[in-house]
Write a structure and sequence with these properties.
By secondary structure, the chain is α/β, with parallel strands linked by helices. The protein contains six helices and nine strands, in the order E-E-E-H-E-E-H-E-H-H-H-E-H-E-E. About 30% of the residues lie in helices and about 15% in strands. The protein is globular and about 50 Å long. Bound molecules: adenosine-5'-diphosphate and magnesium ion.
């Protein structure tokens, strides 16, 4: 696929395939187009050429309902976008109730299970401003998982965190990627179209609720590598 903003060609023929349950990390310099790629996949940006398919269906074709597509895609950004006037539980249950049409009871049961799995059970009734940045970002990830996405896009979810809080968020990513240490970054490259590093071989498919089929992580320049964070975008 290709994407330009005016004369600036940001994505010059990206060719990327991600297997079911595979976690990949996009590594590249600030401004190399990592966020743009994720935004294109979530149909927040239109593409100029090429096509994007999710689970076999083309999502960039004519007449595709963008809202319908986005229901199957979770996206979490660098800054925590939790609703400050809602408890953790309401933050997490809002979309499942509105978008998936779950009953309050079912949405709360699923949210509680997810919060429990990600070590946030005791924060259920807390408001976001009473949580640490790492906890807020974990809630944001849980909120994205609560809509049962087929694809989860994480755009530098650790880059606004203090270094000591990064690990807890990465542990969450490892948890749902299916095995410990799975979300490993490849070597940093300047060019995004060479930088779609396979993080690890596909893990076996499992019918595991709350686990997206595949996950793409814009990690900044090395946020997920053991060398620590170097990106700033
Ligand atoms: N909406 C936009 N309009 C114009 N230029 C944009 C827009 N969004 C991003 N860009 C430009 O596209 C390039 C890639 O940006 P981005 O995808 O945010 O990079 P990264 O996430 O890798 O840091 C940058 O030069 C940025 O300034
Ligand atoms: Mg970015």
């Amino acid at each position: 696929m290709r994407k330009a903003f005016g004369k600036l060609e940001v994505l010059r023929g990206i060719d990327l395939e991600v297997a079911e349950h595979e976690v990949i990390c996009l590594i590249g310099a600030s401004g190399s187009g990592k966020s743009t790629l994720l935004r294109c996949i979530d149909l927040l940006e239109s593409i100029d050429a090429g096509r994007i398919t999710v689970a076999g269906s083309e999502i960039t074709g004519r007449g595709v309902n963008a809202n319908q597509v986005r229901r199957d895609i979770g996206i979490v950004f660098q800054s925590f976008n939790l609703f400050p006037h809602m408890s953790v539980l309401r933050n997490v249950t809002l979309a499942p109730r509105k978008v998936l049409g779950l009953s309050r009871q079912q949405a709360e049961a699923e949210a509680t299970e997810l919060l429990d799995r990600f070590g946030l059970a005791d924060k259920r009734d807390e408001y976001p401003d009473r949580l640490s940045g790492g906890q807020q970002q974990r809630v944001a990830i849980v909120r994205a998982l609560a809509t049962r996405p087929q694809l989860l896009l994480l755009d530098e979810v650790t880059s606004a965190l203090d270094p000591e809080l990064v690990a807890e968020v990465l542990n969450v990513i490892r948890l749902f990627s299916g095995r410990r240490g799975a979300a490993r970054a490849g070597p940093a490259r300047a060019d995004l179209h060479r930088a779609a590093a396979r993080a690890h071989p596909p893990v076996p498919a499992a019918d595991h609720r709350g686990r997206p089929a595949l996950t793409a992580v814009d990690s900044g320049a090395g946020a997920v590598s053991s060398a620590g964070r170097a990106g700033d975008s």
